[in-house]
Write a structure and sequence with these properties.
Helix content is 9%, strand content 56%. It contains 1 helix and 12 strands; from the N terminus they run αββββββββββββ. Strand 9 and strand 10 form a beta hairpin. It is globular and about 40 Å long.
C-alpha cells in the first residue's frame, strides 16, 4: 500500500510539473523569421502539429533554478475517423506522451501517458485545450477529469496581440490567461502563442511556486 501511494504521489507531482512549465528534424533558431510573428506564409495556426516539428524551452523558477525540456511531434494516428497527433515531452523526468486533435476552430487534448511507468489518463470529456486561431476577446471553459481522475476546472481568456521577446526571437503573440482549479488548488497560467510557431512563453503562479518558460529554438514545417 505504501508503494502504491508513493507511485501515485510521484505521478501527481510529475503531472503538476508539466502543467507548470507548459500549463508542446533539427533545431535552428529563427527558422521561420520570428520577428514577423506569422512567418512568410502568414499562417494563423497558433498550435502547429506536423510530424518532426520540434521546440526547445527553458523554465526558470522565482528563485532562479533553471531546467530545459524539448517537445517533438512524433506521429499522426487515425482513431475513430479522427487524426490524432502524438507529441512527446522530454525533460529530467520520464518522457510524457500527449495526444491532440485539431478539428475546425479547436485544439483538443485527448489523453496523456507516462512512458516508463505506462500510467495513462484519458481526459473526460475531451479537453478543449486551445481555440485556433486565437482572437482577442475569445473565452472558453472546460471541466472534466485528468490524471488519476482528479477533477479539473479551467477558464480561459484571450487578449492581444502583444510583442514578446524570448531567446528564440521577437514575436507578435496572442495572450491566453488560464485559471485552473485542480485538486482544490488554484493555479494561474499565462501563455503567449505566435501564429505559425506555437507557444513562445508561459508564466505559472501557484501562490507558493512561480515560474517562467521561454522558447529557446524551434523547427516547424510549413
Amino acid at each position: 500500500m505504501k508503494t502504491n501511494k508513493a507511485v501515485i504521489t510521484l505521478l501527481f507531482t510529475m503531472a503538476l510539473w508539466l502543467a507548470l512549465v507548459l500549463g508542446c528534424s533539427y533545431l535552428k533558431k529563427g527558422t521561420m523569421s520570428p520577428s514577423s510573428g506569422e512567418g512568410s506564409s502568414g499562417s494563423k495556426d497558433y498550435f502547429p502539429l506536423r510530424v518532426g516539428d520540434t521546440w526547445q524551452y527553458r523554465s526558470t523558477t522565482a528563485d532562479g533554478k533553471q531546467s530545459e525540456f524539448s517537445i517533438k511531434v512524433l506521429n499522426e494516428e487515425k482513431e475513430n475517423g479522427n487524426t490524432l497527433y502524438l507529441v512527446e515531452t522530454v525533460s529530467t523526468f520520464q518522457p510524457i506522451h500527449d495526444w491532440y486533435s485539431k478539428p475546425g476552430g479547436w485544439v483538443l487534448m485527448h489523453r496523456q501517458e507516462y512512458v516508463k511507468t505506462g500510467s495513462k489518463a484519458e481526459y473526460q470529456p475531451t479537453k478543449q485545450f486551445l481555440k485556433n486561431p486565437l482572437m482577442s476577446g475569445d473565452s472558453w471553459r472546460w471541466k472534466g477529469k485528468g490524471m488519476m481522475g482528479v477533477e479539473i476546472d479551467e477558464s480561459n481568456d484571450v487578449s492581444g496581440p502583444e510583442t514578446v521577446s524570448v531567446p528564440a526571437g521577437k514575436f507578435e503573440a496572442m495572450k491566453v490567461t488560464t485559471k485552473v482549479i485542480q485538486g482544490g488548488a488554484l493555479v494561474t497560467k499565462t501563455y503567449w502563442y505566435a501564429p505559425g510557431v506555437g507557444l513562445v512563453k508561459s508564466m505559472t503562479d501557484t501562490g507558493s511556486v512561480k515560474s517562467t518558460t521561454e522558447l529557446l529554438e524551434y523547427s516547424v514545417k510549413r
